Amino acid sequence: MEYSVSTVIFTEIMFNKTSPLQLIEDELLTKRGIRLFVKRDDLIHPQVSGNKWRKLKYNLQAAKEQEYKRLLTFGGAYSNHIAATAAAGKIFGFDTIGVIRGELVKPLNPTLNLAQQQGMKFVFVGRKEYREDKEKIAARLQQNFGRCYVIPEGGSNSLAVKGCVEIVEEVREQVDGIPDYFCVSSGTGGTAAGLVVGLAGLSLVKVFPALKGNFLVDEINSFIWESMGESYDNWQLITDYHFGGYTKWNQELIDFINEFYQKFRLKIDPIYTGKLFYGVWNEIKKGNFKDNSTIVVIHTGGLQGILGFNQRFGNLLNHNVET
């Protein structure tokens, strides 16, 4: 289906305009006088949820305005971004091409199978080649596929930051006053940068990386500077909860995710949001949030990955996720 209206109108047609804010009640929070809200961006859309829609929104608008017919992007075999881009492409009338890190493995895992059902074509590249300059890879592929609007791995760029700024705008309308803290998981830094830019120096943003290393400091600062032409110091990287690196996990994390669902009926995944909530809970226990403060935790979606995780590791996550 082709649309000629702006992506802002697309939102009103296809997506929930504002994601809800859910209050979490728990003895630990009551003891410290903390109000904790979850920004339920996972409910924005069944297939283009969470920060993936926020990041894609203005990129899709730019692609339409520049009369592109194809989207080309990058990701791993279980990438939330790949799945969301494929679904968004189908909804908004784009052909989609996914450059997938690693060799083709059949049968396709649930993430790639879902993306293929949405019409995405795949180009599998070895890990060494994948580490090359993505612009060169994209230029080479466009010689075969034709002109493409290129979206970075994870979807993070200046337009993605613009979309994520709107999280702050929504929260300020939903909460009485400005929360003391925003907490978010991070893989490429675009969502975290959007929160910092949206707050413009107000509140503290705690960023919980899903990957090992401090490289996100430079990435987030770069996105902030590109968007605002200035830097902010009201954010910090909390590096104690990546569980060894991207896609790494242990039984303690799995137990936490399952117990969290049983207690709050809130689904979280083992790659991003599970580590985020585990970290937030432990930081509260340690007293690293002020008593009598208000915290907003951003649920960035990514629930499609649970099916693939359970397929690989034997149904360790016991909350059923519909596909």
Describe this structure in words.
This protein starts with 6 loop residues before the first helix and ends in a 10-residue tail after the last helix. The protein has helices at 7-14, 27-32, 50-65, 80-92, 110-117, 127-130, 134-145, 158-174, 190-199, 215-228, 251-264, 273-285, 305-313; strands at 21-24, 35-40, 70-75, 95-101, 121-125, 149-151, 181-186, 204-209, 235-237, 294-299. The relative contact order is 0.15. By secondary structure, the protein is α/β, with parallel strands linked by helices. Residues 1-5 have low confidence and may be disordered. The protein is built from 13 helices and 10 strands. Helix 3 (50-65) packs across helix 4 (80-92). It has 2 domains: 7-47 and 158-313, Rossmann fold (3-Layer(aba) Sandwich); 51-155, Rossmann fold (3-Layer(aba) Sandwich). The strands form 2 sheets. Strands 1-2-10-7-8-9 form a 6-stranded mixed β-sheet.
Which structural traits does this protein have?
323 residues, Rossmann fold, disordered N terminus, 13 helices, 6-stranded mixed β-sheet, alpha/beta
List the helices and strands and how they pair.
Elements: H1 7-14, E1 21-24, H2 27-32, E2 35-40, H3 50-65, E3 70-75, H4 80-92, E4 95-101, H5 110-117, E5 121-125, H6 127-130, H7 134-145, E6 149-151, H8 158-174, E7 181-186, H9 190-199, E8 204-209, H10 215-228, E9 235-237, H11 251-264, H12 273-285, E10 294-299, H13 305-313
Parallel strand pairs: 2-10, 3-4, 3-6, 4-5, 7-8, 7-10, 8-9
Antiparallel strand pairs: 1-2
Helix pairs in contact: 3-4, 3-8, 4-5, 8-9, 9-10
